[in-house]
Predict the structure.
Amino acid sequence: MLGEQLGQMRAMGTGALARGELAPETRGQLRALRARADEFDAASQASLQRAAQHAPGLTATLAQPLAAEKARVAEALRLARAERHYLFSLAECADPEAGRLDAIALPEGLQDCVDSIRCPAYVLDRCWNVLACNAALLRLFDGWPARGQPNLLRYIFLDPAARTLVVDWEERASRVVAEFRADVAALAGESDIAALVAELQAGSPLFARAWTRQVVVDREGGLREFQHPADGRMRLRQFTFRLAIRPDCKLVMLLDEPGY
């Protein structure tokens, strides 16, 4: 019965409710339905937890069906992006449609935003392809990514120039693998991610070794050192920010280290 009601109200949705586009009586019906769905979800979770205590492998076995159920609820209610993310956060499971939902257009003027930044700056997508960068970044990386493939991982592991530019290259490169693994943990099955990993494993022994260790760390930023061919030793502090409408993309900035 609950699923039937959700289907009948597909065209209404919580997104419309938040915008105040529904008639008062319809808003009341939808709020009541959403409350009933929350009660049903809570009861289901409690039952699952009790069952998992007696069968430890049950949670992993049911993870995919539970995610699919959440996806159907989200589609039935036509949840907005933030509402859908909140639903899956409460359920503590990955959204099976996360990759598709992230594939929305980047805002116009993104390159202008990056150009307005004085320090070296660039934007990466989920495969760490460079979507935009400024002149200061081109100078720091001695012409990359204007030359060669504009992918940060390919540059670090496959471009010989990275070994001389990045101070303590092997240590830094190993950490980059752990950062990338953590960054794409929920997308490991996506074809573009898998193809990139396979290419890097085949082309870089260091990447292949580091990837098999399955170490993960956050992309925390911090001090970065470079041995620039014209400017000599440079110490910069890295900061990374997620784009609000495209959380799979990130803005990276490298600021001068004070006192150096």
Q: What stands out?
A: The two ends are 68 Å apart (CA to CA). Residues 6-12 have pLDDT under 50 and may be disordered. The longest strand covers residues 232-242.
